[in-house]
Amino acid sequence: MRRGVDLGDFVTRPAQARLIDAPASLWPRNPPIRFRAAIPTTWIELVIKEGKNRQVRRMTAKIGFPTLRLVRAAVGEWKLGALQPGEWKEIHV
Predict the structure, then answer these.
(1) What is the rounded distance in angstroms from the CA atom of residue 21 to the CA atom of residue 68?
(2) CA distance readout (Å), 78 to 13, 14, 34, 60, 91
(3) Model pLDDT for residues 6-63, shown as the tens digit of each residue
(4) Is the dihedral of CA 82, 17, 91, 30 positive or negative?
(5) Which CATH number belongs to the domain containing residue 84 in this structure?
């Protein structure tokens, strides 16, 4: 991912990727993700500089680790912070 991923129709720009612990304040997913004891799950933080259609899901699937849950924490300079689902904050640009 750090060198870009060839998705067939284009090669992604290099991404910043690192392993992280599962977020403690993450809200429950509905419906829940099916637990599989034989298949480990890992959380990654991925920072991309472009955002093509389903790019993150396609990148992780291509390297053999499909996305089970995707949480967008920031878009450009705007960060999710402590906002919970359904909450909003007015931004003055």
Answers:
(1) 15
(2) 21, 21, 31, 24, 9
(3) 999 999 999 999 999 988 878 888 888 777 777 778 899 999 998 899 999 999 999 9
(4) negative
(5) 3.30.70.1560
Helix/strand/coil for 54: coil
79: Cβ contacts below 8 Å, ≥ 6 apart:
73
- Find the domain containing 17 and state its range: 1-93
Nearest Cα neighbor of 44 from 63, 25, 16 is 16
Domain count for the chain: 1
What is the reported pTM? 0.78
